[in-house]
Design a protein that fits this description.
Strand content: 5-15%
Number of helices: 11
Largest sheet: 6 strands, parallel
Shape: elongated
Structural class: alpha/beta
Distance between the termini: 24 Å
Oligomer: single chain
Radius of gyration: 23 Å
Length: 287
């Protein structure tokens, strides 16, 4: 087949080709090297630098539509915080984020969560806090006023951790896993902005690949200390944790497939453009 005739190929054949090539690394991982971006490294370094016993808020502000990107980000960071002996207050300002957080915590801490040693002392899962931006602002000002019980119906005042953590003034790091509003911008405005700025309430965030460009100005100004960029950011973070304490590098096959898919599309674009140029050149000569 000549290059000019490429444009006449039924696109369904291209879809089949993409399906085949993307399936190969999913079935047999290629283990391609993965460079770690600066903003992923910053999430790791900021978290790693926290002394044991520091308090981290893990906020699940996304839903099923972006679970492929946000969920592994949040899970890896919670596993990292657990490994470092950090204390965690887990919350969701999206109702759809609450059941996802419950599943992630059971994966990290075991199926018996919250019936584990340390619940209430080292970790508390508050669950969904209603009110969107208002709920987030109230949470930053007075956690008990935002919601008086945890996700399982126990009074927050019964937990030693919540006697220690009353407001944003008692938080050492806010980890925001988001795909919309409320998200990182609302944390900056309604929590960080009201409680001493980025030095008092550092923020790390994870977003979908299409939303991360909107986060970058806040990263450049220091209002966000680090960012995980979509599935790639989750994979980069997992690779760092894999070196640190053998955390499962679960996103490797997905990233291999993504890389192969991108290369194939680039090849299609190059071949298609070459075919177009040749056909246009031949057409000009014949006239």
């Amino acid at each position: 087949m000549t290059l000019p005739k490429i444009s006449q190929i039924d696109r369904r054949y291209l879809y089949i080709l993409v399906f085949i090539f993307v399936s190969i690394p999913l079935l047999s991982p290629l283990k391609l090297p993965i460079p770690v971006s600066e903003h992923t490294r910053r999430v790791y370094d900021v978290t790693q630098a926290l002394p044991a016993g520091s308090v981290v808020v893990e906020s699940f502000d996304f839903g099923p539509a972006t679970i492929t990107e946000n969920r592994p980000q949040a899970k890896a960071h919670i596993a990292h915080a657990k490994h470092l002996g950090l204390k965690m207050v887990v919350v969701a300002f999206w109702p759809s984020g609450a059941p996802i957080a419950d599943e992630v915590l059971k994966e990290v801490y075991g199926a018996d969560f919250p019936s584990i040693s340390g619940y209430g002392t080292n970790i508390v899962y508050i669950g969904y806090v209603p009110g969107n931006e208002v709920g987030m602002q109230t949470f930053g000002d007075n956690i008990m006023a935002a919601k008086g019980i945890d996700h399982y119906g126990t009074q927050l005042g019964n937990f030693p951790l919540m006697q220690q953590v009353r407001s944003a003034a008692d938080i050492d790091l806010w980890a925001e896993w988001t795909s919309g509003t409320p998200g990182e911008q609302q944390v900056i405005q309604f929590v960080q902005g009201r409680h001493g700025g980025s030095s008092a309430v550092p923020i790390v965030a994870g977003g979908t690949a299409v939303s991360v460009p909107g986060m970058m100005p806040f990263y450049q100004t220091g209002q966000i200390s680090g960012i995980l960029n979509g599935l790639a950011g989750a994979g980069e973070y997992e690779s760092l944790l894999n070196v640190a304490f053998n955390y499962p590098y679960a996103q490797g096959p997905s990233l291999d497939a993504q890389s192969v898919g991108h290369l194939l599309i680039i090849a299609f674009v190059i071949i298609g453009n070459i075919g177009y140029v040749i056909s246009k050149y031949r057409g000009g000569k014949s006239s």
